[in-house]
Automatic annotation (TrEMBL):
Residues 330-430 form the Pyridine nucleotide-disulphide oxidoreductase dimerisation domain. The keyword Transport does not apply. It comes from the Bacteria. Transmembrane segments: none annotated. Its cofactor is FAD. PANTHER family: NAD(P)H SULFUR OXIDOREDUCTASE (COA-DEPENDENT) (PTHR43429:SF1), PYRIDINE NUCLEOTIDE-DISULFIDE OXIDOREDUCTASE DOMAIN-CONTAINING (PTHR43429). The keyword RNA-binding does not apply. Residues 3-307 form the FAD/NAD(P)-binding domain. Keywords: FAD, Flavoprotein, Oxidoreductase, Redox-active center. This is NADPH-dependent 2,4-dienoyl-CoA reductase/sulfur reductase-like enzyme. Belongs to the class-III pyridine nucleotide-disulfide oxidoreductase family. The lineage of its organism: Bacteria, Bacillati, Bacillota, Bacilli, Bacillales.
């Protein structure tokens, strides 16, 4: 009998694992269960869709059950996995269309159940028009409700919240951004960078309600009208909660090793602590190279890499996972921003003894007809000079420099080494001393 592979969840990690497994193990019987009525939705397009830049929601999907069927994969959409027994190798599923539960068996299980937005339990949280932002249905609800809303509040100033704030502001809404930290994007950027982002929003008339915690919601006729915080009250017709994610891993609780937040711990080959149970994506912890520790960093980049590695390593350990720096990018109005590894604030909070170099320069020679400012910060260990993080911001797109620094962190390079890496020079693009070389040189 052919090997039976069951995959639970079919967004980025699941789709990556499935398409690769179908190619590598054509004789295997692969079934994927997905509780939604769609697969492979690109959440990263939600803000662009809300802003009307991506007009057609269909473009936000890259796989369909028909495409997977062509690879020999059985896709069971609207099927909710209710229980998994990793010893008996059985899985209990409910067909949401018929309500019928049934049991399936597997030889190998791939857990790609991802994450779900954190919902704070507080007074008024059940009011209408308090919405989440994660999947296709959410995006449609937000777009529909935003049409009728004048005042919109976004709670959470991470990259998802920030992108929505820009989208709503561009739609002409009165927008309030609330976060308990006193800066936006604090996980990704240090204060000199976030100050620039905050000024952009303030100049556009966005109310920044930072450094305060939401305590309750007040409503009228069952609909939210006001958000109460530790520092004030804000009127809103629509609220979007973007305060973070929790891994969807209840099904394996007590059966495989997890972090305290429920993120599944996998080894470098995507194996959980139970034989034949693999996991990938937002359901998992990742190996965070700057600290060498496990961390919970839900990103599509990690999800597709880990999903692909499940396929490569399903039969025997073959290709190792390299870990992550949590590299990410964002565009806010005219600014192209990216970061990798730890901010200076995060490094200090983690007890690292770090220094930093911050460069503000024009990105190409001043004899060129135009040039723009760029701000680059590199954080490194005071002793030995190992690079642990970097941030860049400019009106020109120099975000690829952060991918370069991601490689440097991954390979444990020092600032001295960075000074003399061979980078090209061409006046259209940069200066004779590449910005990254300059950062290395200034670290002496
Ligand atoms: C608004 C937004 C913007 C983002 N932008 C970016 C970006 O620009 N760059 C980036 O790298 N990342 C971005 N991300 C993060 C990225 O979307 C996630 O990291 C990625 O979706 C994780 O993929 P996943 O397959 O691991 O999990 P998920 O996307 O969470 O998918 C898990 C799937 O499992 C299914 N499932 C769960 N439990 C069950 C069950 N019991 N039975 C059946 N099915 C189940 C779910 O329905 C879901 O389809 C963004 C996220 C959001 C919400």
């Amino acid at each position: 009998m052919s090997m039976k592979i069951v995959v639970v969840g079919c967004t980025h990690a699941g789709t990556a694992a499935i398409t690769q497994m179908a190619r590598l193990y054509p004789e295997a019987a692969i079934t994927v269960y997905e509780r939604n009525d769609n697969i492979s939705f690109l959440s990263c397009g939600i803000a662009l869709h809300v802003a009307g830049i991506v007009k057609d929601a269909e473009q936000l999907f890259y796989a369909s059950p028909d495409q997977l069927a062509a690879l020999g994969v059985t896709t069971q959409m609207r099927h909710d996995v209710l229980a998994i027994d990793t010893d008996a190798k059985t899985i209990e599923v409910r067909n949401l269309a018929t309500g019928e539960p049934f049991v399936d068996t597997f030889d190998k299980l791939v857990m790609t159940t991802g994450s779900w937005p954190i919902i704070p339990q507080m007074e008024g949280i059940g009011l209408e028009n308090i919405e989440l932002c994660k999947n296709y249905q959410h995006s449609q609800t937000i777009i529909e409700k935003a049409k009728h809303a004048k005042r919109i509040a976004v709670i959470g100033a991470g990259y998802i919240g920030i992108e929505l704030v820009e989208a709503f502001e561009e739609l002409g809404k009165q927008v309030t951004l609330i976060d308990n930290m006193d800066r936006v994007l604090f996980k990704y950027l240090d204060e000199s960078f976030t100050a620039i982002v905050e000024k952009q929003f303030a100049d556009k008339g966005v109310t920044l309600a930072l450094g305060q915690t939401v305590t309750s919601f007040t409503g009228e006729d069952g609909r939210v009208t006001r958000i109460n915080t530790t520092a004030g009250e804000y009127e809103a017709d629509l609220v979007v909660l973007c305060i973070g994610f929790r891994p969807n891993t209840e099904l394996l609780k007590g059966q495989v090793d997890m972090l305290p937040n429920g993120a599944i711990i996998v080894d470098s080959y995507m194996r959980t602590s139970k034989p034949d149970i693999f996991a990938a994506g937002d359901s998992c912890a990742v190996h965070y190279n700057p600290t060498g520790q496990h961390a919970y960093i839900p990103l599509a980049t990690n999800a597709v890499r880990m999903g692909t590695l499940v396929a490569r390593n399903l039969m025997k350990p073959t290709v190792r996972y390299l870990g992550t720096q949590g590299t990410s990018g964002i565009k806010i109005y005219d600014y192209n921003i990216a970061s990798t590894g730890m901010t200076e604030a995060a490094a200090l909070a983690a007890g690292l003894n770090v220094k930093n170099v911050t460069i503000e320069d024009n990105y190409r020679p001043e004899f060129m007809p135009t040039y723009e400012k760029v701000m680059l910060k590199v954080v490194y260990e005071a002793e030995g000079g190992r690079i642990v993080g970097a941030q860049i911001l400019s009106k020109v797109d120099l975000t690829q420099a952060i991918n370069t620094l991601s490689v440097c962190i991954q390979n444990e390079m020092t600032m001295d080494e960075l000074s003399f890496v061979d980078f090209f020079f061409q006046p259209h693009y940069n200066k004779p001393w590449n910005l990254l070389n300059q950062a290395g040189l200034q670290a002496i």
